[in-house]
Amino acid sequence: MVVYAGQGDARRSMALLWRTEERGETRPGPKPGLSVDVIVDAAIAVADAEGMAALSMRKVGERLGRTGMALYTYVPSKGELVDLMYDRALAELPADYDLSGGWRPAVTAWAEHLRAFYLRHPWVLQVSQARPVLGPNEFAMLDTVVGILRLTGLRPGRLRGVVALLFDFVRGAARTVAESRQAPSETGVPDEEWWKARSIMLEEVAPGFAARFLMVKWVESEDDGPREGEPHLEHRVGETFGVGLTVLLDGIEAAVRGPV
Fold first, then answer.
1. pLDDT of 220 over the 90 cut
2. Pair 73, 109 in one domain
3. What is the pLDDT of the chain when averaged over all its residues?
4. In the chain, N or C: fewer CB atoms in 10 Å?
5. What is the per-residue pLDDT for 123?
6. How far is it, in rounded angstroms, from Cα 211 to Cα 217?
7. DSSP letters for 188-247
8. How many structural domains compose the chain?
């Protein structure tokens, strides 16, 4: 399931993201029981617990003890709500990193924090990056990583490519883990059972597999397997995340030493 940002009214969505409608605004009478932030927090809780497919104004209203219609005074539609959810969730990410050790340890910490964030909120991975939300926290996240990588001395044009590559790498690694966690409930087959059954069948239908695919056998030769209770694919992706990030950062260092 892919969700595109900016599906609601553009002007209203941007005004809500940047809270321009609230600046200097005072309302007479008692304080309202709902607010945009309360609604968005409830929507994030629904998506965290049940996934993006379960998200609806009615479901969010039920979580708040209200009808779905009661929310429309604050958030016009689900389109604007998704934008607000995405940007508000990003506020969890750290904005400052220790740069005393240089850019590499700082960007490593940033990548690890981003991966953990995606796994806490896997629905975020379903919000397409083709059309950004353009909210304040999205820009703050970008500002943070650019601030770290500016220490490399790379020119803006090359640095944009580096930033895009980092986001794609972290997002892709997190998506695979999130999908592996979801697979047992979606398919009714536990991860370990799936791999065990396929491994046995592969031996039956492909005798001489190791001799036929020498390079595959070789590259798998140092696999220690998952720890007890850890899904096979999640183990593999978690193991390779560190290796892949190291190689990616090595590539950035090579770019720094080359022409900028």
1. no
2. no
3. 91
4. N
5. 98
6. 8
7. SS-HHHHHHHHHHHHHHHSTTHHHH-HHHHHHTTT---PPTT--HHHHHHHHHHHHHHHH
8. 2
- The sign of the torsion formed by the CA atoms of 238, 242, 243, 245 equals positive
Mean pLDDT of 98-119: 98
Q: Which CATH number belongs to the domain containing residue 20 in this structure?
A: 1.10.10.60
Q: Are residues 37 and 151 in the same domain?
A: no
Confidence of residue 8 (pLDDT cuts 50, 70, 90): very high
Instruction: Find the domain containing 186 and state its range.
Output: 103-257
Which residue, 31, 61, 90, sits at the end of a domain? 90
Nearest alpha-carbon partner for 255 in 190, 194, 188, 165 = 165
Report DSSP letters for 139-200, one per residue: HHHHHHHHHHHGGG---HHHHHHHHHHHHHHHHHHHHHHHHHHHHHHHHSS-HHHHHHHHHH
Whole-structure pTM value: 0.91
Same structural domain for residues 38 and 69?
yes
For the record, the structure tokens of 134 come out as: 């353009």
Across residues 165-186, what is the average pLDDT? 94
**Looking at residue 113, which CATH number applies to its domain?**
1.10.357.10
139-143, 176-180, 220-224: which is most confident: 139-143
CB-based burial label for 34 (10 Å; 0-12, 13-18, 19+)? middle
Q: Which residue has the tokens 């397409």?
A: 128
Are 250 and 176 part of one and the same domain? Answer: yes
Same domain, 158 and 41: no
* Same domain assignment for residues 76 and 168: no
